[in-house]
Amino acid sequence: MVVGEVASPVDLLVIGGGPGGYAAALHAARLGREVTLVESESLGGACLNVGCIPSKALIEVADAVAAPGRVAAWGVRATTEVDMVGVSDHLTAVVGDLTSGVAGLLERAGVRVIPGTARFSRPNRVAVEQDALVEHLEFRHAIVATGSRPIELPGLPLDGERVVGSAELLFTTELPGELVLVGGGYIGVELACAFAKLGSRVTIVEVEDRLLPGFGKRIGRAVERGLRNLGVGLCLAHRAVEANEDGLAITGPGGDLVLPADRIGVVVGRRPNSDTVGITEAGATLDERGLVVVDSQRRATDRVFAIGDLTDGPALAHKATAEAEVAAEAACGRPAAFDPTCIPMIVFGDPQVLSVGLDRDAAAAAGIVAASSRFPFAASGRARTLGDTEGYVEVVADEEGTVIGVHAVGAHVAELAGEAALAVETAATVEDLAGTIHAHPTMGESIMEAALGLAGRPVHRA
């Protein structure tokens, strides 16, 4: 049924209820706008429902399963048993609690939520379709946050059973014996670590000659060592060809081979959902990658803003959330601009990875003369108590002593991202970090120790 061509007026329309969308709706409501939010699936978007949150919950489960091997040297004897149905139920409960929380926040803020799929029909109008019902909305301003979706490979179509995406793997109720992951980015690395600890035999196939192509080479090599220690097979510089009855056919420098595979996970990246919303009908411009071209206020047209995975930059929830506030402020006529010095990147692998700002190679490529100092976790009292001393924290500074990067590999380093980003974003100096008293014993004091080394007065290392 079509509900006429007469459009209902709305003040500020938000399309997409993921981290960027619901944050934009909450900010705009706080600023006094009447907000309508359209979401085609579940509030929280891919991150909360099938990405960031359930994947980290699964990683915690996997770490618990692997704990007996780690604590045996401490005099603790334990065994574990995995019930994947129970694990899936646990992940579903975690997601459900958080999506309910988002719904409650929107309700208390007075945001009207409409289920359905929105598509632009005019520069100031969208059609919202839900089943057989179509409703037209005419807006003053719109913030588009429709996110992204997994890239599918032409020769390896997803069938939902044997060849699947990350979402199906996360909520699986049956542990695969032989799991092949196509893609060695952060999603592939995190899933490989989790399933290897749960008991699967895991192989990663990556077309590049190293893992985590978006990170520094040193970090990639450390992650490779960690995966090999877990028994994960690595087929780098190899391309997936097709799935057959024997497994996954791949090709590379050494020729063709077939990897045994009960399940094949395709995790090669994501593409923006700019086509699904028809944003060009509103007058927006797309680049060659399908990303929406925006200015520093995230403005795509006079009245339409785009944020998150739709725009240039890393497809990360915290980037979308930061852009959401800028777009909401700009839509309300307030001065605002998205111009971060850094966007922290983390990987919950084994080891974990933290990368903020420039490393020495990137600094050199930018013409910056940089120096750095590493503090190894072998010298960290907290790392010793945790029983994991692999890895390091590295602080990078320019000639003036301004911190331009913080990078780390090791257990729990993702939790250092806030301080690292604050240091780079506020142009803190090496002396600022070295002179700030950090609590002992914590992993955070490793940043101070690395800064002390860079300042020429190391304490817990030669």
Describe the protein in words.
With 462 residues, the protein is of the alpha/beta class. The protein folds into three domains: 194 residues, FAD/NAD(P)-binding domain; 106 residues, 3-Layer(bba) Sandwich (FAD/NAD(P)-binding domain); 110 residues, FAD/NAD-linked reductase, C-terminal dimerisation domain (Enolase-like, domain 1, 2-Layer Sandwich), CATH 3.30.390.30. The protein is 32% helix and 26% strand. The protein is built from 14 helices and 22 strands. The strands form five sheets. Strands 1, 2, 3, 4, 5, 6 and 17 form a seven-stranded mixed sheet that branches. It has a five-stranded parallel sheet with strand order 8-15-9-10-11. The protein has a five-stranded antiparallel sheet with strand order 18-19-22-21-20, with helices on both faces. A hairpin with a 2-residue loop joins strand 12 and strand 13. The longest helix has 25 residues. The protein is globular, with a radius of gyration of 24 Å. The termini are far apart.
